Amino acid sequence: MVLTSVTDRLGNAAGSAVGAVSGRFTDRVIRLGVTGLSRAGKTVFITSLVANLLNRGRMPQLLAASEGRIQASFLQPQPDDTLARFDYEANLDSLLRPAPQWPPGTQTISQLRLSFKLAPQGMFAAMAPSKTVHLDIVDYPGEWLLDLGLLDLTYDQWSEQALQSAEGRAQASEYCAKLNTVDGAKPFDDVSASQLAKAYAAYLTAARQAGFSNLTPGRMLLPGDLAGSPVLTFAPLPKSAGDKRSLRAEMQRRFEAYQEKIVKPFFRDHFAKLDRQIVLVDLLKSLSDGPAAVADLEQAMTGILRAFRPGKRGFLRELLRGRRIDRILFAASKADHLHHLQHGALQDLVAALTQSARDTARFKGALTSSIAMAALRNTVEIDLDRHGQSLPAVKGLALGSGKTVGFYPGEFPASPARVMAQARAGVSQWEEGAFHDQAFAPAPLSLPPGYGPPHIRLDRALQFLIGDVL
Q: Are residues 275 and 230 both part of a single domain?
């Protein structure tokens, strides 16, 4: 019986290996994760990406498109029956209406499969059949992304970090005041726990509105059907004595349940299966919110990357270690809010912001890059006259009023390293002038046949992410 069990295990292992080998000769599947914190533009990015891959007239930097290797591209049913389908058609319709609207933000995990028929290449191309490559695009709420860093923390470690971050923030004043009236060593009661959790969630929401990014647990910002459940009714507390029936002990138990029942399955079922990754960063908003927001964004980006398990892909590596993300792109979104003369400075700044994260990924073997881009261009460039000085600016429809406005955000600092140094030093405001952002409404679209929505460098981003497999 023991010998039979060993033989069965060896047979299963051999079968898995054969399956992995045979998979190399079937259609290639690439899973692209689209991530970014709230309002970074994930939904618009995926909608424009798909529209421009179905109609490739605006994609000259995607070499497979410009060189004619893509014979056809088409949407297919998604392969995972347990995930919602990304509602591409409804999102595109929102942008194509006579009075266009931004599509609703990401509320849950969704997926879309886009397939390509590729012309064969090489000496025997004339005799070879077309090749099929499937691109599975996985979208998920940016708020949930923040929780991956919790997997490496104990409740005490998380509490210490969370309370340290809250210290000095006006948005946390109510929660900090409530903490002063609570003794974690006293017996647990639901009323106290619920009040603390609500006050902490209110602080997280206010802090996000003020421009802070590194806020956990992320599900408190977007609880969905978990609202009010014990797994979301906890909050950070200072260390204290107490037995297993104390308030602090129950808070710790619920934090650990959140790790086990919410965060780990999310990582295992989705993140661990990704091949490529784009991280969208609303850097313009953080710059406008000030040095503290930029410093907090840098911490969030570094923490996010630790969960991505970057590294080189390879046949043996996949058999022995599982899949790894081998290409990561950090993209400063909404570049259409700037004149093209400022795009280089924005790209340099997102590179400086994510340098630590990119260094870690490169050390583990992944290719990384940074870019300033806009998945949907909603402005036109103008020269704005201010006190006799001509400024490189843009104009578009202001969100809310619908009025056409000219906008100049301010002069980018000459040194990205100096910007990051100020942010890390904790200064209250930028030493060199001020930087502003403007919320624009989507511009009316009229798409000629064969053309997707206008964009800035979306084709270059896709060339880095999937150009090698096309």
A: no
